[in-house]
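For reproducibility, we list the full input for the FE2/S2 (inorganic) cluster complex.
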Amino acid sequence: MADKVRIRMTVNGLEQRGEVEPRMLLVHYLRETLGLTGTHIGCDTSQCGACVVHVDGQAVKSCTLFAVQADGSSVTTIEGLVKDGQYHPVQEGFWEKHGLQCGFCTPGMIMAAADLLNKNSNPTDAEIRHALEGNLCRCTGYQNIVLAVQYAAAKMRGEPVTGAAD
Ligand code: FES
Ligand code: FES
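The corresponding predicted structure, in tokenized form, follows.
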């Protein structure tokens, strides 16, 4: 068995130190070692996007990274999006616009969408669909996900937002 490697990273604002197998994936470190099970594993081919987290502010599929590669980084998971008891606007948008059904894809969708809105405050529907191409949803047909992201974008721009979907 390979020697374990010491790592240290900030996860959702808390410093975490530990020793991991060199081949441990970041998603397994987050879920199994830190107990942050909001980050999901939906495939073994790096296609589904259920595992998306932010590493140093960038959306990353956490099944494509070894935990040791995130050493020294700042990681945010879906659990870290709530600030001062307030849902992130993207979380609120998914609630208001019924952007989910089973919810399995939702944490990764929300993290990918939040990354998009950090870079583009006023995306078109096509830009949203393009940004979420790496996130698969087998339930919703995507339309309400686009509406949810548009809701969040408007809210983050300080514009009035309309309530729940019809
Ligand atoms: Fe499917 Fe990471 S678990 S892309
Ligand atoms: Fe079920 Fe997206 S809501 S996979």
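The helical segments are 26-33, 89-96, 106-119, 125-131, 143-156. Residues 41 and 99 are 19 Å apart (CA to CA). Both points were considered when choosing residues for closer inspection.
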